[in-house]
Amino acid sequence: MKFTFAVFAFLAVFSAADAEDPQIYIRKLETNYKRARTLEAKFLQEYSESGRISRSEAGTAYFRRPGKMRWEYSSPERNLFVVDGKFAWFYVPADHTVSRVATRESSDWRTPLALLAGEMKVGRVCSKVDLSAEQPKDSNLVSINCLIRGAEKESKAGKPHDTAYFEIEKATGELHRVVVNEAGGVRMDMKFSSWQYDPPAGDELFHFEPPKGVAIVNGEELMAGPGHILR
Q1: Is the C or the N end of the chain the one with fewer CB within 10 Å?
Q2: Alpha-carbon distance 40 to 199, whole Å?
Q3: What is the pTM of this model?
Q4: 3-state SS of the chain?
Q5: Predicted local confidence at residue 12, as pLDDT
Q6: What is the CATH number of domain 34-224?
């Protein structure tokens, strides 16, 4: 009887320790999204600085591998952000302008959001992952820190650097939230919901043709972040 109890106690401790391994949830995240070529989700995006929200936007996002994205902003105003694999376009209908930048020059591809349109390998974006000290109130979710590649030296030296974390559904690996904290104090908080896998989305969604009469502005400043609006 004592032996049986000892075995169960050992298994309980082993299972608890195993569940604390962040790689378990990273693998679920990667596996979950690799099964579809195209993804669709609703999003709520907030930018904040010094703890104060400066802008909040919502809409529908589409991702297609390899390297294509479409962000349809419906609130508070209609805007469109498209990455066609060669260029990133940001269209502001109210301003009658289109901003364009080559994707290879885009800093946006350093963020975890690029995973959804790429090979879905967290290791390409994060040099290190670990469980966040503060976990979500919802016990169905787990929060995992990501040390963004390129920030290792600053991190070791204790200097300000970009950080990020994911909130993942424990059971399914579904991405619930991505937060990116920039070294300069700007914070991007992106919440996802209503994920669809391989929805009826044609190739035309990931192609952008500037409307007639709309000026095209080339500039790397476009890509301060997905949905960033030039002012």
Answers
A1: C
A2: 7
A3: 0.80
A4: CHHHHHHHHHHHHHHHHHHCCHHHHHHHHHHHHHCCCEEEEEEEEEEEECCEEEEEEEEEEEEECCCEEEEEEEECCCEEEEECCCEEEEEEHHHCEEEEEEHHHCHHHHCHHHHHHCCCCHHHCEEEEEECCCCCCCCCEEEEEEEECCCHHHHHCCCCCCEEEEEEECCCCCEEEEEEECCCCEEEEEEEEEEEECCCCCHHHHCCCCCCCCEEEECHHHHHCCCCCCC
A5: 38
A6: 2.50.20.10
Tens digit of each residue's pLDDT (9 = 90 or more) over 173-230 = 999 999 988 877 888 899 999 999 999 988 999 999 888 888 888 865 444 444 443 3
Instruction: Name the residue type at position 30.
Output: E
